[in-house]
Amino acid sequence: MGTTPAPPGEAVALLTGQTGEPTAIQVLSDRRGSRAWKLQGPKRAVALKANNPDGDNARDKAAEMAQEDDHLRRLTAADALSPDYRVSAGTWDGGRWLAVNWIDGAPLWRALALARGPEGDRASVRPWLAGIARTWTEHLALMYAAGWAHADVQPTNTLVTHDGHAAVIDYALGCGPGDGRRVPYRGALTHTTAPELATQVLDTPPTPTSRHNPPATSGAWAPPCSGAGPDSAPSPTTTTSTGRRSWPPSPRAPPPRCATSGRGPSPRSRTPSPRAWHPTPQPGPPRRS
């Protein structure tokens, strides 16, 4: 059996100032050249990600980590992301690391287990499902309004909290204004794309935009609800629970209609700053009677 990878010491030392002395460090994932841990301290918990220095693509993963950090900074500046989502980032002997706020949420597949059961179509379940879908699209709408596309919408990048809110995580492959060269490519591909089709997509000049996310969101929503699909049950080891439960608050105006327009609203028509909004509590999954 292999040894459990330890998080970068430089990152843990720096984050201790915010978490307190770590009381528990849990490995969340170790795959495809990157690793993730949960650091629990007396003050708070954070999710820490770093590249695997021994991986064949260590340099690319370090660059991808830096790219996600850049995206988080820019999305925060554009009011498309909570200002306290990003915790810290930096370099270490093996490459780069990134820390974000921890969220106690369940991956979308596990959260929607009730919907796949015999009672999934009960009237009492529908408002709960609608609340998850609404808060999920509100996250993405904030990005659309700022001219961004998440570009990696899938069940493993969506968490559901106990109060029925959806949280979007993993922004490394996002596409926004003024992007330069993409690392490792422009956005993500669905897991079931044939290799020859994937090559054609990657060789095509257009970059993913907000109009590409609604179909991806629908495709990511359908398998966890129905239990059908070739990629319907993602491995729990691929999920990193990151984010903040209270984000995003419910806007006072409806989200931009990116699915029909193909782009977000102009800056003049943007909804008010998220910092002025307040969250709307949502009920948890209904209990069986």
Report on this model:
This protein is an alpha+beta fold. The chain folds into 2 domains: 9-101, 2-Layer Sandwich (Phosphorylase Kinase, domain 1); 105-276, Orthogonal Bundle (Transferase(Phosphotransferase), domain 1). Helix content is 29%, strand content 16%. The chain has 8 helices and 8 strands; from the N terminus they run αβββαβββαααββααα. The protein has a 5-stranded antiparallel beta sheet with strand order 1-2-3-5-4, with helices on both faces.
Question: Structural class of the secondary structure composition?
Answer: alpha+beta
Intertermini distance: 46 Å
CATH level-two architecture of the largest domain: Orthogonal Bundle
Number of helices: 8
Q: Which of globular, elongated, flat, extended, rod-shaped describes the shape? A: globular
In terms of quaternary structure, what is this? single chain
How many strand elements?
A: 8
Query: Largest sheet, if any?
Result: 5 strands, antiparallel
Kindly report the average pLDDT value.
Answer: 75
Please tell me how large the radius of gyration is: 19 Å
Order of helices and strands: HEEEHEEEHHHEEHHH
CATH topology of the largest domain: Transferase(Phosphotransferase), domain 1
